[in-house]
Amino acid sequence: MSPEASDWSAAGCYPVAPGIHRIPLPMPNDGLRAVSVYAVESADGLALVDGGWHVPEAWDRLAAGLRAVGGDVTDVADVYVTHVHRDHYTLALELRRRVGARVHLGRGEATGLQAVRALGSNVPISSLRELARAGAAHLGDPVVEATRRESFDLSDWQDPDTWLDPGIVDLGTRRWEVVPTPGHTKGHVVLHDLDAGLMFTGDHVLPTITPSIGFELGEWALPLGQYLGSLSRLLDRPDAEMLPAHGHHGGSVHERVVALLAHHDRRLGEIVAVAGSNPDPVTGLQVAERLSWTKHGRAFYDLDAFNRMIAVCETLAHLDVLVDRGTLVAEPGASDEVATHFRG
């Protein structure tokens, strides 16, 4: 067992609560650096919350972490996945193939999984569509080139053993409530251990950053509106200690939710100011270019190609909420290939 490191992504196995350990697994060439998988003692063996990304070093790191607390990958009986992004889902299916672990995923992710299998690649075509709507189709070119070079294994995107619906999961030694929290993806769920006062928040509530919104295949359904609603509904639940997928564990879920809601309120205000200060209607790209990005306040063109795409898509998600609220007006182009303009 390792003491908690100052770097949350450092390899190790960190105690969280009685019978629960956090194991950071690597995310190659990704700015987040790692995803935290939580190993939980259950009546059937070990249950994991989130599976990790199916890369060789992740399997080795998981095995080492479990050995540090007297376990083994063969002890993993169940993997409860908060959402379908590859850093959470794909290693879960490798665990099923190699040790027979059962995989559980929110029912709202079914259409996303089907879309990934139908596409058969990592190219983010839905995000490319949104770039075109923002007048930024050209920003997708380097992303397409990079993702086409990535390996894609269809076996990493098969259906889970169980689709999770709202309600109680009984692990024998503890009971979790499955709570749908759409926004980051359509089928994201958090797992609330009411007895222990813990909540596995996945990417829905993160301690120092805001999750990307709407980065998945399929049609958008006002993802930021969904996300804000999901955040607000957590305030109606008992508070809990936060066990997130990225960043240090600990701290109040409610406190962080209030901060995230305040952040998005400020962001919406910034976007209204940009749109309102321009005498002509603006595109999503034009708004994104005038905002600062990341917690370090970086300029838009200081971001790499992938994060410029994410920034434009998140800007559109905010613009769509403002249109839905009646604060701004959208003037759609004739097709997805023609940019939408927004005005106050």
Automatic annotation (TrEMBL):
- Tell me the ranges covered by the Metallo-beta-lactamase domain, including all copies: 34-246
- Which Pfam families does the record cross-reference, listed alphabetically? Lactamase_B
According to the UniProt entry, the coiled-coil residues are none
- Name under which the protein is recorded: MBL fold metallo-hydrolase
What species was this sequence derived from?
Nocardioides plantarum
Which superkingdom does the taxonomy of this entry point to?
Bacteria
